[in-house]
């Protein structure tokens, strides 16, 4: 028992055991019939922000080639150093990526690559369901990045700061 | 007078079934009780999860067969899990303990009457496995055995938390057993018998004991919570203090057995509450179910009534579990010894005095003035009890003020020890 603790003389309504207990019982009983708030996850999904930054996606041109021109800006800006890019050039002098790999495990999903890309080729996506059987599965190559279909992130717009 | 006539009808000679019929009926009853009991224990795990979920605005398990097959999924999971045996455990007792905690709960059901007797073509078949004349004593004896399972589990695990849980459970169950036994003595006084069938009949023809003996019911219910180790008295488990208490070392089906035992205990105690205080299988406001002829339809209806009452108590168990937080250990002990036990003893004296007075005044048992007297006493007792409960500091709160005397004693101790230090070390 503590010494010299000030004990407030409170009215009976506040210190009553029985009333507090019955009040609690009533509350839990009424809760039985309340609306349930659980999201039934695989069937229904919470909507995510339009600025959600998830796993990447490479956009393509109309003839199905990657928009990337191999400029090397995204591996330069990437703070996590997770983008591997080997640029190549075809006979017409068009540059394209020979190797384009993103290690999604290293990625910190800052979205700088999307912001810096002059061709609007690489994007972070509005997507969060990632599962693989191996760590290697999380190194996405160019083919995989192009095959992704999820919507892409909309970057922050100063004119519309809340993304509405 | 009609009541007495009806009682005579019951007590009168009935056609005893032939021995073979008795044997077959007993075997069928055993099988039926065991099956229903195990199934209901399994379904209760689901009910508990569902009710807790609904009380917390969740859905609860709804994947395996819309949730209905969840107990089966749990069972399969527990069967295929690895059994771990701690190196330092006392293996024979470690394996025996779950069984010991589970069997007493199961055996108790042998003496609980669950429906009106069935007057079949082969004679009257009692709807109770073993109509023991000492039914209630049998239950008291067995319910004290339940503590062995938990204590042995705690001790044989050779784990400090398990041992603490076992110790706590032994202290708690022994303390509350006394209050529980004492609280039912008024019931036995009214029935004049310890056979559960007689207690049910007495309530059917007179009034339910809960109206006469509400205080006894209250004590019994609180003690039942402590006996089954359910919140708010789940001291032996106490996840936040003792990890999981006595079953922290158990895995797979042995762990599951403790769980089943807990639910079995809950069903048993609920059935006991229904039997002792809520008229057992009696259908309220009517007498036709209690008197001959005993038809099958009466048996089925009374069985449903009994299931309803038991189910209601099980719901109360779960409801309270998900409402009230756990008591502190010293509060549990002081509630048991300083409040429940004296209250139960005092109540026995009060009820016994009233019964003797009413008897000597010439009121017959079961007559209106007799029960009016009892109900008046009961009303007074309930009002006083709840006034005291509402105001008093029955269980010490954490913030209670120190008594003046104790404070001065403490100050004297600290002054003398300081003086001693000063004299030894110098200023």
Describe the overall structure.
- The complex is a heterodimer of chains A (164) and B (427).
- In chain A, 21% of the residues lie in helices and 15% in strands.
- In chain A, 20% of the residues are buried.
- The longest helix of chain A has 15 residues, at 17-31.
- The N and C termini of chain A lie far apart (57 Å).
- Chain A is of the alpha+beta class.
- With 427 residues, chain B is mainly α.
- Chain B is built from 16 helices and 2 strands.
- Chain B has helices at residues 2-11, 19-55, 70-80, 91-107, 135-156, 160-183, 185-191, 196-205, 209-212, 214-227, 239-242, 252-277, 296-321, 329-360, 368-391, 404-425, and strands at 118-120, 123-125.
- Chain B has a two-stranded antiparallel ribbon with strand order 1-2.
- In chain B, helix 3 packs across helix 12 (252-277), helix 5 packs antiparallel against helix 6 and helix 7 packs parallel to helix 14.
- The longest helix of chain B has 37 residues, at 19-55.
- Chain B starts with a helix and ends with a helix.
- Residues 7-13 of chain B have low confidence and may be disordered.
Strands across the major sheet of chain A, in which order? 2-3-5
Taking the sheet with the most strands of chain A, its summary is: 3 strands, antiparallel
Give the amount of beta strand of chain B, in percent. under 5%
Number of strands of chain A: 5
Provide a count of the helices of chain B: 16
| Unreliable residue stretches of chain A | none
Integer average pLDDT of chain A: 84
């Amino acid at each position: 028992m503590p010494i010299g603790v000030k004990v407030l003389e409170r009215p009976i309504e506040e210190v009553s055991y029985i009333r507090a207990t019955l009040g609690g019982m009533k509350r839990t009983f009424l809760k039985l019939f309340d609306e349930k708030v659980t999201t039934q996850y695989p069937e229904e999904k919470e909507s995510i922000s339009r600025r959600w930054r998830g796993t990447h996606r490479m956009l393509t041109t109309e003839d199905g080639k990657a928009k990337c021109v191999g400029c090397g800006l995204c591996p330069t800006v990437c703070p996590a150093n997770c983008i591997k890019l080997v640029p190549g050039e075809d006979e017409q002098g068009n540059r394209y990526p020979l190797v384009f790999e993103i290690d999604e495990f290293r990625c910190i999903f800052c979205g700088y690559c999307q912001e810096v890309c002059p061709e609007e080729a690489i994007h972070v996506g509005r997507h969060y369901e990632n599962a693989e059987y191996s760590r290697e599965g999380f190194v996405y190559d160019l083919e995989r990045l192009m095959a992704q279909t999820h919507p892409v992130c909309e970057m922050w717009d100063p004119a519309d700061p809340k993304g509405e | 007078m009609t009541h007495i006539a009806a009682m005579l009808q019951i007590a009168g000679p009935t056609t005893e079934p032939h021995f073979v019929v008795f044997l077959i009926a007993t075997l069928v009853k055993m099988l039926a009780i065991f099956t229903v009991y195990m199934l209901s224990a399994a379904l209760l795990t689901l009910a508990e999860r569902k009710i807790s979920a609904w009380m917390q605005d969740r859905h609860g398990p709804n994947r395996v067969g819309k949730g209905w097959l969840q107990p089966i999924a749990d069972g399969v999971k527990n069967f295929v899990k690895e059994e771990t045996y701690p190196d330092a455990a006392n293996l024979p007792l470690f394996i025996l303990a779950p069984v010991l905690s589970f069997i007493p709960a199961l055996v108790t059901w042998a003496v609980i009457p669950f429906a009106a007797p069935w007057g079949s073509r082969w004679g009257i078949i009692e709807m109770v496995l073993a109509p023991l004349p000492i039914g209630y004593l049998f239950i008291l004896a067995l319910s004290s055995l339940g503590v062995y399972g938990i204590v042995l589990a705690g001790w044989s695990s050779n784990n400090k938390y398990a041992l603490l849980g076992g110790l706590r459970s032994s202290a708690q169950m022994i303390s509350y057993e006394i209050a529980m036994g004492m609280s039912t003595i008024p019931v036995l006084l009214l029935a004049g018998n310890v056979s559960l069938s007689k207690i049910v009949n007495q309530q059917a023809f007179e009034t339910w004991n809960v109206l006469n003996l509400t205080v006894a019911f209250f004590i019994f219910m609180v003690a039942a919570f402590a006996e089954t180790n359910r919140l708010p008295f789940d001291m032996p488990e106490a996840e936040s203090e003792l990890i999981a208490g006595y079953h922290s070392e158990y895995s797979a089906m042995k762990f599951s057995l403790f769980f089943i035992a807990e639910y079995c205990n809950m069903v048993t105690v609920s059935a006991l509450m229904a039997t002792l205080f809520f008229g057992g299988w009696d259908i309220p406001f009517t007498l036709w179910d209690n008197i001959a002829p005993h038809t099958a339809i009466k048996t089925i209806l009374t069985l449903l009534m009994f299931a309803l009452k038991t189910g209601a108590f099980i719901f109360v168990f779960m409801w309270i579990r998900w409402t009230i937080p756990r008591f502190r250990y010293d509060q549990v002990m002081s509630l048991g010894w300083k409040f429940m036990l004296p209250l139960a003893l005092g109540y026995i004296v009060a009820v016994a005095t009233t019964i003797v007075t009413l008897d000597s005044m010439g009121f017959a048992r079961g007559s209106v003035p007799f029960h009016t007297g009892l109900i008046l006493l009961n009303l007074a007792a309930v009002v006083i009890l709840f006034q005291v409960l509402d105001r008093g500091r029955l269980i010490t709160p954490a913030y209670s003020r120190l008594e003046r005397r104790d404070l001065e004693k403490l100050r004297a101790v600290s002054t003398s020890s300081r003086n001693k230090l000063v004299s030894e070390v110098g200023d």
